């Protein structure tokens, strides 16, 4: 396989991962975690191992235990994904500025 093909596969897989992330909602806010800006980064290596760097709306978020597990499980359910790991960070802390325009509109913040 040429290097270019691998790059396309990784990019395609990245798009599929984003589509999955958009099906996961914060239980307190009717907006998906991607549009909320909770996903800081998605890394896919050449072995299709996925690492997701995400945050929560607050360190005391009631889903702090369950949301990362849900993200891992849903991403792992993609056929092309070999393994998935979620790392939670509060650096930088989440603010409403990280939300997409769509999310702000949905919540009446625009």
Automatic annotation (TrEMBL):
Q: Name one Pfam family in it.
A: FeS_assembly_P
Residues in domain MIP18 family-like? 15-88
Q: Which SUPFAM superfamilies match?
A: Fe-S cluster assembly (FSCA) domain-like
Coiled coil segments of this chain: none
Q: Which InterPro entries match?
A: Fe-S_Maturation_MIP18, FSCA_dom_sf, MIP18-like, SUF_FeS_clus_asmbl-assoc
PANTHER family hit by this protein: FE-S PROTEIN MATURATION AUXILIARY FACTOR YITW
* Full protein name: FeS assembly SUF system protein
Q: Which organism is it from?
A: Flagellimonas lutaonensis
